[in-house]
Amino acid sequence: MLNTGRNPRMGFEPRLLNSNNETANGFFKCMKLAQEEAKAALAKAKDNMARYYDQHRILAPEYKPGDRVYLDTSDIETTRSSKKLLHCYLGPYTFECQVGPLAYKLRLPLSMSHLHPVFNAVPRIRSPAAVFFRW
């Protein structure tokens, strides 16, 4: 139906026959037109949302194996007593390989062996220049 976007099943599907009743034919045409307009409006809204989302999207940084990168500590648990006293970035660590489209593997020291070495590209991994010039 038009308001829910679903077509309920009745257990059997009636055949589409031309009715001799003009009112029924008019209602059918009106509902068909309303459904087509709703589909067009939904497609237009989807395109608009994608366009506005992509305007503010930044591309993931590209690294080569051997590059030195810093690791953002916002989601890493440490033994520090307060987040205020925690370093903003750890590293630099050596970039090993790209695991997925937005996932990178780092070579971590033994003291950080409790962490999984694969991290999300944005915003956890930063280039060294971005750390020094962040203010």
Termini separation: 54 Å
What structural class should be given to the helix and strand makeup?
alpha+beta
Rounded mean pLDDT is 79
Largest sheet: 5 strands, antiparallel
Counting DSSP H or I runs of 4 or more residues, the number of helices is: 2
Helical proportion, percent range? 25-40%
Q: What proportion strand?
A: 15-25%
**Order of strands across the widest beta sheet?**
4-3-2-1-5
Would you count the extended β strands for me? 5
Integer tally of domains = 2
Element-by-element helix/strand order: HEEEEEH
Q: Rounded to an integer, what's the Rg over CA atoms?
A: 28 Å
Structure report:
The chain has a five-stranded antiparallel β-sheet. The chain is 29% helix and 19% strand. The mean pLDDT is 79. The relative contact order is 0.12. It starts with 21 loop residues before the first helix and ends with a helix. The protein is rod-shaped. With 135 residues, it is of the alpha+beta class. A hairpin with a 4-residue loop joins strand 2 and strand 3. The protein is built from two helices and five strands, in the order H-E-E-E-E-E-H. The protein has two domains: 16-57; 68-132, no CATH class.
Helix and strand layout, with pairings?
Layout: H1 22-55, E1 68-72, E2 89-98, E3 103-107, E4 118-120, E5 125-126, H2 128-132
Antiparallel strand pairs: 1-2, 1-5, 2-3, 3-4
Domain Tf2-1-like SH3-like: 66-120
Protein name: Retrotransposable element tf2 155 kDa protein
InterPro entries: SH3_Tf2-1
